[in-house]
Amino acid sequence: MDRGPDDETVPIAELLDERRQLLNVAYWMLGRSQDADDVVAETYRRWYGLCDEHRIRIAEPRSWLVKTVGGICLERLAPTGRSDPDPVGAAPPQDLDDEVSHALLEALDTLSPAERAAFVLNDVFGMAPGTVAAVVGQTEQECGELAARARHSLRTRWAHPATPQQHDRVVRAVRQACAGENPDRLTSLLAPDATVFFDGGGKVRTLTRPVHGARRVTHSLLTLLAGRPRTTLNCRSVNGRTAIVVCYAGEVAAVISLDVAGEHVVQIWAVLNPDKLRHWNRAATREK
Fold first, then answer.
1. What is the DSSP pairing of strand 264-271 with strand 190-199?
2. What is the DSSP string of 11-41?
3. How far apart are CA 220 and CA 256, in angstroms?
4. Residues 198 and 70 in one domain
5. Last residue of a domain, one of 143, 159, 175
6. What is the pTM of this model?
7. Residue 95 maps to which CATH number?
8. Which domain holds residue 216?
9. How do residues 73-112 score in pLDDT, each as one tens digit?
10. Mind listing the pLDDT tens digit for each residue in 187-220?
11. Radius of gyration of the chain (CA)
């Protein structure tokens, strides 16, 4: 027998538990209580925006709601829509455990949106790989790699945290070594087990697997950045941290973010995907 709209009634305890879960997911992904409230409200607006027949056909409403929350959060985490995290001392939603670490939330804010989503959904909430993949929009294997990358980055930061000043100093030294095509200097700035990831999004021909080891990373970076004088490297703030923006013939061709522990770079993420760089080039066009 088909269900009708009246059959959608659920116990109030389940409704409140569902809302708590959605708020927790949104808060961990965005780091702001108000943003979490806004995302959950928008999620329910989308739910009730569905026609009755569509809602009834959804076998697991909570799964649909979690996926929708994740999708909205990823939209907000994009560089053009990202918000600053709550200031120190701001209270998280009351339903979060008292042990929630503000330091962890700050560390999460340094991850890429996809890394943060994969880590939060997989490690914090223990969601099924298929659900994580549906939210992030990548394969289960790719989401596993994103979560592993996030874990490595977070462990490194907690073991040897770098101050913003240290981070800025190391990134600028890396830029100078790359601009001067100085392999020895660049290698000295990298941790022995440094790793570089290339995100081409299938839109440019670049390495699809990470490169490990200081000397191999040095070779990969200097090869990538060869081609001066038409290639220029500048330090810019990206998500609150200094990064290297690479331009070729006046167009942004790559954004290189670096994870720094102490005085060495431990991880590099080079974004070359033209789709992800589009907003950079639009901004550059408006500035001309």
1. parallel
2. -HHHHHHHHHHHHHHHHHHH--HHHHHHHHH
3. 13
4. no
5. 159
6. 0.53
7. 1.20.140.160
8. 164-287
9. 988 886 544 444 443 333 444 444 333 345 567 667 767 8
10. 999 988 888 888 887 778 787 777 888 999 999 9
11. 21
